[in-house]
Amino acid sequence: MSTSLGGITLAGPVMVAAGCGGTGRELAGYSGPAGLSAYGAFVTRTLTRDPRPGGPAPRLLESPAGLLHATGLPNPGLDLFLATELPWLVQQGARVVVSVAGRSLGEYAEIARRLASAPGVAAIEVNLSAPDAVVAGVLDAREPFHAGGAIAAVLRELPRGLPVLAKLRPDLQRVVETARVARDSGAAAVVVGNALPAAMPDGRPAGLSGPAIGPLALRCVTEVRAALPGLQVVGAGDIATAADARAHLRAGATAVQVGSALLHDPTAAARIVRELADDPAVAATSDPSSDPTPDPTSDPTYDPTSDPTSDPTPAPGDRP
Amino acid sequence: MSPTAPVPPATQPGRQSPPQGPVHTTAEVLATKRVGAYQHLTLLAPGVAERFRPGTFLAASVGTLGDHLLGRRALWIHQVRPVGGHGLALQVVVEPVGRGTGWLAGLRPGARLPVTGPLGRPFALPKEPVATVLVGEGYAAAPLFPLAERLRERGCAVSLVVGAADEPRLLSALEARRSARSVVVVTGDGSVGVRGRVGDVVPETLRRAGAEVVYAAGPAATLHAVALAAEEHGAWSQVALEQPLTCATGLCHGCPVPVVGEDGVARTARACVDGPVLRGDRVRWDDLDLDLDRRPGPDRDLPGPVGGAW
Q1: How far is B224 from chain A (nearest CA, A)?
Q2: What CATH number does the domain located at A13-310 have?
């Protein structure tokens, strides 16, 4: 069962969401005999140009039906990641999607230039929706044009065929407009969504993830698919069981990302992979040939020249 | 659910090695016993006990559907013993103070719960039979008992300092007398042993024991005192640090510990995978929030630190 996302081929529709798989090493042991290659893709925690120690503790708290998190995007910085973590992930057979965030469009371009020549990067996910963006010091795409600018800045530096995914907030008021602009700026797909902005009990900006946001994310996926049928969508938000994954795939998502469920049960994503693999209905859904044909006329702003899914060039890290 | 044993893809199949790394499995409660302020749970968790080394811990999923307690509760492993007809069983210590730990303490024999373990880096054992001092406060003293056993097997002299706020929170003081050459008991209210703080008696204990290695588990402030005393005495210290954990497996980056690397560079370690046991001289104590493990409100059952205090 393979899945075609943004012109690249994934082993299946189940991805590990950014920030919920550690560095990969911690997750590998819970992934079954295939290790990290069991997943459609492993999305890294969000990397920034410079190393970030992250925010103060407590960084995560339980909330009714959810987890609150204010991690402050801790990461070793792009260079150290490229030198140490990426080669290991590639060697493990993981399809690596690198999640990135920048403080400015210039920094986004700089990040993209370094990634453009890194072997083994399957795709780039631009984190436009960090729920504590202001604290983390990264660009917060509050307006759709912010998202468009960041996507365009990244794409300009990349070789053709290396797809860019835009990770958007599951905010129904904005998600369709932002997805449209992201697509028009060249995003190969959108990931809907990230945590919702929330607050820690002490008032610090935080994100809310988990069961609390599942139905909201599903609604957003449905709306984006309806408004922009030519745009591939990756569903994220409380994907904790195979049933959750099926709901998103039925709503038109091409793939799903498993996030906070892994923090409760590190085997959750591997179990969903196994259960979907045995499900012929999902196998049919994820067949790219059964994907609804984009209908340009249904979307007045549709620009065929900006549709990266029409570009058949394989990604540099794309193995047959 | 069958146990999911991690299979590092890089290992060569066919080469036999002792089982390593944590497993995610379903544990069964074999027995549960109230001892003072703590509930001692005996769990059958296939694969976990075989991999146990003192200082590693167990993460438990708590609550039933609808409770929505998404964080794991991290529990010190107090004992690994064969139980007739069952193989090896684990004993963990729970202080019921919040929703999750209260739920754990209320489990009856036969109850099942998902667990992951053993997690984290264990205490490093000395190669030579040297004199050691073990310092434990509250329920966190739990991992020192199996550690004392391993140290004695290696011919190490073991002196023990056990402390708590009061007698009900003093863990296994009787058992301590069996495990160690000398035992100092300290309570905050003076109900048993010396009245005072655990850290107060450590310098003198180190001197008397001629200790070369100090092992400690307890609140961060106590560990800081132990690390300082060890440095002054000229001993190595190994401290098992409690930080609030959420996933306990290294995935969430939610348990930062400020440390200094071998190269002198300041870094942020994760208490769950880089710890819980760290060298005392590697922790940047001044940058660590020493009160973090004492801050919880009674109405909010945070994802607990190791030991499940919250």
Answers
A1: 18
A2: 3.20.20.70
Instruction: Pull the structure tokens for residue A68.
Output: 């609150």
Is residue B306, in this structure, part of any structural domain at all? Answer: no
Do B211 and B81 reside in the same domain of the chain? no
**Partners of residue A60 in chain B, C-beta under 8 Å:** 71, 244, 246, 252, 254, 303
Q: At what angle do helices A172-184 and A144-156 cross, to 10 degrees?
A: 30
Smallest CA–CA distance, residue B237 to chain A, in Å, is 24
pTM above threshold 0.90: no
Which residue ranges make up each domain of chain A?
13-310
* Number of structural domains found in chain B: 2
Tell me if B105 is assigned to some domain: yes
* pLDDT tens digits for range B155-190: 999 999 999 999 999 997 777 778 788 999 999 999
pLDDT in tens, A167-200: 999 999 999 999 999 999 999 999 998 999 999 9
B22, B246, B292 ranked by CB distance to A67: nearest: B246
Region of B210 (left: φ > 0; alpha: ψ -120 to 50; beta: rest) is: left
What is the span of the domain harbouring residue B270? 131-293
CA distance A241 to A224: 23
Chain A residues 104-123 within an 8 A CB cutoff of chain B: none
Same domain, B278 and B189: yes
Shared domain check, B284 and B204: yes
Where are the alpha helices (H) located in chain A, listed in sequence order?
25-28, 78-80, 86-91, 105-116, 133-136, 144-156, 172-184, 214-227, 242-250, 261-264, 268-277, 280-285
A136 confidence band (pLDDT: 50, 70, 90): confident
ipTM: 0.83
Within 185-204 of A, beta carbons closer than 8 Å to B belong to 201
Q: In chain A, which residue's Cα lies nearest the Cα of B69? A: A62
